[in-house]
Amino acid sequence: MKNFKCGVEIHQRLDSHKLYCNCYSNPSSAGGSAHGALFKRGLRAVAGELGGVDRAARFQAGLGKTHEYFAPYGECCLVECDDEPPREMNREALAQALRVAKSLEMECVDEVRVMRKTVVDGSAVSGFQRTALIALTGTLETSRGPVGVDSLCLEEESAAITPEGYRLDRLGIPLIEIATAPDIKDGVHCREVCEKIGLLLRSVARVQRGIGSIRQDVNVSIEGGARVEIKGVQDLKALPELVDNEVKRQEALIALKGKRVNASPVEDWSAEFASSPCRILAGKKVYGFQADCPGLLKTPVHEGKTLGNELAGYARASGARGVIHSDEDLTKYCLEDFPRKGLWIVCSDNKAALEAVRTRLLALGEGVPEETRRADGSRSEYMRPLAGGARMYPETDLSPVRVTRELFEGAGTGKGYEERVAEYIALGVGRALAEKAARSEKRELFESLAKEWDAKLVAGVLLEKLVELKRGGATVVGEEGLRGLFALHAQGLLTRAGLEEALSRLAKAKTKEFKPAIEKEGLRRLSPSEVERLAREFKGGFAAFMAAHRLNADPSDARKAFENG
């Protein structure tokens, strides 16, 4: 792999109210309002700060789409609908961003200036995303040497796409974007870098958890290729293969460099499919063209993907469901007797999509184009041309924010992942549980409970037993109930096993009712004298006794009773 370059951009949602209004939303949590307002918008590309129109924005605007938006009541307001100017920047989110920047030893800016980044794919009602540079030039230590951190920005999360359109509850949530230098060595190293930054963010900042709350964009290029951005990587396990596949894809396209292809214009072929046995195309408006390169679309791009699959992605990016071509198995479409010879490609109801495929086919000889692609497991698919600097221009509705000494120092530094793990181990928690606690979304609750009660017990109950019960579908006590049960255990009224049993049995009881409830449920811890009496009367050994009385007999009391008996 010559001149391999790879860097990542990591986007993490913060757990705070939105960046430019006071609305709060966590789309990754259960629920969400089903009531709200519906409206539509058409978006157009505008010139950037230097007067040029970005190629990605021009491509998206050229699709001519009208976007539908749903604004849930209580989770967004007129700011997200672009019907009210933004309010001042969320200072809590800014402090969180500064804290992360300091943890990466970055150089923070003296003044935060907000820019608009043209985005006309529908994910921002206004047609732009607000983004602000917070810090530059940091370093992340990894097992394969330091990786530079080029920038840290604070920006707005995009709207969530649904089958019906876009939901605005997600739009405007503060998002930290961390961009690394192209220092990543390969796909395995890429995964390590993403994991380390993810752990740092979760350790240092207050972040949202759940699917979609953190996303990775991966930039890859090789010698003779071009920079390609793969957006929306969710599964870190797929990263090594995703990067490897992108390298193979670029190598396959480099091998076609200089290839000359001739193709006929895209024409209306509907008449040829009027009575076709192909149900996908019969009776529809069908467009097609021919080219002088039969067999070319069978060329492997990487395992499980051919050049034909690659070109179909360009059709889908233009709104089509895909294409059918003569280099694939035509029996599955009942087109094995189609009379045209050589390579032909058809698409239904979307001439522009087939034009995009033809344009890309004719450009194969130019090598690897710069583009933005969508992650799909360990594969990727074309989305749009790669965006550039022409999409940026100053935000005129917001004043700059001075990073005063008070603001900078008040942001604090936060504890790193390894520091937290070491702290938990010092409290008596084993390494495996300590690492689980440091990664967990219940970390703050664990730290709070561990200040009052045995940390090892708290970790086991909170991070293992509760998870086990929930996976089994059980209803369990909340935070207040947990505190009540740990207090009863500390008072000697519950054994460890009794406490764990009470997690689900007392889920519907009020905390003040716990004492009579554990008596009623037979969970009250037996006194040493009660255990001794029962042990004398018991016919069997220690193990059998504990099996019979595991919920309310403490093992240490039972062992003493049997040793003395």
| Global morphology | globular
Question: Pairing-aware structural class of the strands and helices?
Answer: alpha+beta
Low-confidence stretches: none
Mean pLDDT across the residues is 92
- Biggest pleated sheet: 11 strands, mixed
**Helical content, roughly?**
25-40%
Number of domains: 3
**Counting H and I runs of at least 4 residues, what is the number of helices?**
17
Distance linking N and C termini: 74 Å
**Beta-strand content estimate:** 15-25%
**Radius of gyration, rounded?**
30 Å
**Strand element count:** 23
Question: Any descriptors?
Answer:
565 residues, alpha+beta, Gyrase A, domain 2, eleven-stranded mixed β-sheet, four-stranded mixed β-sheet, 17 helices, globular
Could you give the topology of this structure?
Layout: E1 5-13, E2 36-42, H1 55-62, E3 66-72, H2 91-103, E4 107-108, E5 111-112, E6 114-118, E7 128-140, E8 147-156, E9 160-162, E10 165-167, E11 174-180, H3 187-204, E12 214-221, E13 228-233, H4 239-255, E14 267-268, E15 286-291, E16 300-302, E17 305-306, H5 307-317, E18 324-325, E19 343-348, H6 351-362, E20 371-376, E21 379-385, E22 392-394, E23 401-402, H7 405-410, H8 417-426, H9 431-439, H10 443-450, H11 455-471, H12 479-490, H13 496-505, H14 514-520, H15 528-537, H16 542-549, H17 555-564
Parallel strand pairs: 3-10, 13-20
Antiparallel strand pairs: 1-11, 1-12, 2-3, 4-7, 5-23, 6-7, 6-22, 7-8, 8-11, 9-10, 12-13, 14-15, 15-19, 16-17, 18-19, 20-21
